[in-house]
Recover the amino acids of this structure.
């Protein structure tokens, strides 16, 4: 897939579709070492200090448990987004799987490009082409059928570099962070530019985040009774793009409370980080910086997937913690 | 407000704006008598039997705790919706409160009708007029400001018949039902045609349902940085109508799981009841029928607020439990 050149917004517009917490009110639970895959240093210390500050009853920065909302981007923040967004790999695989029923795709772009692995032509199709791919692969079935299709794919597809299921390519330090926050009364949410229905079939199993705590981009659905069974049909029309300035909107719509902590890795998370941190009270913002070409990938300002540019420049003045995956993380994935 | 004649859909389109659970996996918690305000009878027995069936591990109808999703309509199901939707009373009060800054409203419908208490003219303004009222009273401020306005109003306004705060006019038997379901591992959600932001400021305090478990109608919002503070501005544009066939759509968007139990009182809940019950597996649907003119109100097929007609006819064939407030409930409100 090297050589593909489309910007992040185009891809997300195209991909448009697609926790159980035990709240405690006491002081921060240390549990020995709650973040064993994090190296000692400023990043780890900042997390521990923040959690300690907001969970100490009577202290100036105490936040009651129901208001301890933490939001996490998914692609590049909780799991690997290279060499392409996982959901794009899913869409391309679906085009191939469905091509037998669509002989016309052999002579129609952008489908022909997908079937020929012609990445240059695919890139040329731009946002319009990606939306076409998504509508052809993510709409036209019931929500239940899509859940099964997405769930089956994620259970069988493998990452091209690591030769592992994509759900093995979640960041072990972030899993520890999610669990640590929940053990301190936080409610953890995914807020992703990816498709809400693409993540929900496995978010609870992989992250401990139940479907109702997943926010994402969506296509429209329509209610229908079919042979006495109530169904929702997925329509080929964009409903909501949960990216950039859409993230605070999606957070407000789904959560109804401003997060006190937000975690991202790209410019698509810029406004979510602002929404969480540019407000009175103790706040926490963190950016996962992909600096480890050996154990994962190294990229930021020029990456078509997970471009980090504007938010990188703004991190310092906003007090956002920059996590260097290479330096701050003892290991990246659980299997390492 | 008697004499106003507008249909439910118009009102909801106009009003467009605007839980902490401890999951257990064992058998149903009896807790002595968990529903003390319910008379013995078919309604109460059906609830107890359903909860027992889905919580008994190893039994054929067992449902794992994370899938025990229960959705509740608000107006007329959890609290009183007569002589008008509470949110409509709020909108009318806001027009009066804001009229000093809008001298033009004295000569402009539908505002003039509100200021003159001219209900006939107000009714004539129809859906378009109601949308105008809502946009003038629910938009043009930040989400934080609206939360304060709605919260302040709900803390001070009083019901015209009972002379109590509206939040005292929640149904005691339904509060017990919410708590009973949560104590049996259910996650309880509000799914209302009313404005999502109108309910969230008090839903946790009154119902034990946190903001992130409230689904409702909404207007659009826009992200903005204002003097270094991140804000969401409420725009005068409809985003989503969570009523009728919109309820399954809203449920899918916010919850991502099909409820196994749904509770409503009007035709606006018809498709939510179908969505929850017309699907394989053990399911439960319940309609609160307003039959008690002495202790509350008696209405159904012809009421402009909470019209129950189509869903009344369909209850029997769908196995939905019809609760008669007069016969099934020992008391209606906690203060009685």
């Amino acid at each position: 897939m090297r050589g593909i050149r489309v910007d992040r917004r185009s891809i997300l517009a195209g991909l448009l579709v697609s926790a159980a917490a035990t709240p405690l009110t006491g002081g921060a639970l240390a549990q020995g070492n709650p973040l064993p895959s994090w190296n000692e240093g400023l990043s780890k210390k900042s997390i521990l200090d923040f959690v300690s500050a907001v969970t100490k009853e009577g202290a100036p920065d105490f936040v009651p448990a129901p208001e301890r909302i933490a939001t996490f981007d998914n692609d590049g923040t909780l799991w690997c987004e290279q060499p392409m967004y996982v959901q794009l790999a899913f869409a391309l695989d679906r085009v191939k799987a469905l091509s037998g029923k669509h002989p016309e795709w052999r002579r129609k772009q952008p489908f022909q490009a997908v079937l020929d692995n012609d990445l240059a032509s695919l890139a040329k199709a731009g946002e319009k082409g990606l939306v076409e791919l998504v509508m052809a692969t993510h709409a036209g079935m019931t929500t239940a059928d899509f859940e099964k299709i997405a769930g089956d794919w994620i259970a069988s597809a493998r990452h091209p570099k690591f030769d592992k299921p994509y759900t093995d390519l979640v960041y072990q330090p972030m899993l520890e962070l999610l669990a640590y926050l929940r053990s301190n009364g936080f409610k953890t949410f995914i807020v992703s530019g990816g498709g809400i229905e693409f993540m929900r079939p496995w978010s609870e199993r992989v992250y401990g985040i139940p479907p109702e705590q997943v926010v994402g981009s969506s296509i429209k659905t329509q209610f229908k009774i079919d042979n006495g069974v109530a169904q929702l049909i997925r329509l080929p029309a964009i409903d909501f793009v949960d990216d950039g300035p859409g993230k605070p909107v999606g957070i407000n719509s789904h959560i109804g409370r401003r997060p006190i902590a937000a975690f991202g890795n790209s410019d698509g998370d810029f406004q979510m980080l602002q929404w969480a941190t540019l407000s009175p009270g103790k706040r926490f913002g963190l950016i996962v910086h992909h600096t480890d070409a050996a154990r994962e990938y190294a990229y930021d300002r020029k990456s078509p997937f997970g471009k980090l540019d504007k938010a990188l420049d703004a991190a310092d003045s906003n007090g956002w913690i920059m996590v260097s995956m290479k330096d701050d993380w003892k290991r990246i994935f659980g299997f390492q």
